[in-house]
Amino acid sequence: LVNIARAMGLDVDPDLTPGRYGLYESEARRRAWWDIWWWDAYTSTLSSRAPLIPLHAFSTRLPLDVDEEVFTSACTSAPLLSPTGKEGVGRWFGMRVRLAQLVKDINFRTSLLSSLEHPSVLLSLEHASQCEAEIKQWLLDLPPAFRMGNEGMGEESCIPPHSSMTLSSNASHGGTPPTLLAQRLDILMTTHRLAMGLYLPSLRPHSSLSSDSHYNVKHETSPQTHQARVGALTAAHGLLRSGRHFVELVCARPDLVRRKDGLGLSLCCGLVCDVHSGILFSSPFSL
What we know:
The chain is mainly α. The chain has 8 helices and no strands. It has 2 domains: 1-91, no CATH class; 116-287, no CATH class. Keywords: Nucleus. This is Xylanolytic transcriptional activator regulatory domain-containing protein.
């Protein structure tokens, strides 16, 4: 599919060939390319494989946030969605692409770090803290419509209480349409899982030293390991909370929630991290 898209020239922005494509066709080509780019980023993340489309290997710009209901081939100008106007497919399309860009960029830098023969724990933690700060800032910079309360990694207030999340087929939470709520939860699950993965490498001793019991005791009781465990556990809690509410929403409005192939894997990762941390905190080597 990626090769076909490249053969069609979708990886080259239509503005680089003036006069060849009209406004509507140009936006359609951009949207087709970024849809393929998103699926490549999504599937490569789930399978832990390198994406087929490298970063900066194309010139196609992001599509505009247009009003899908009125944008047709007859339009001479793009009917843009206002920042405070209604939400639609166009705005979420761009938002999920920007979310995938964040994931792809951080995963790329993390893979560079893991390519070192023996990256130090301090170097890994410094990278994790820096990337987590970028995720927090990305969440703070979200348009108001996609923010979930007081946004922040690991904050209890970022998800409404369980009792207030009961949804019916004709009701929405706090006046928020269920579709928009699903999109917000999608963003939270993705960012929490991304943050959790940043700290996991710091919790694994080097394989060559894994049989050294003295090293393992020192590793488990170090301040760096404690910092990594707290970071991973905080993100895992946020992931599980977001996933629980996402499942509730799926049960109430399955017609409004797109297929989420990585939901089970994400929740499993969060659960394993929680259980693992619980075992370690109850062990004689925990802080």
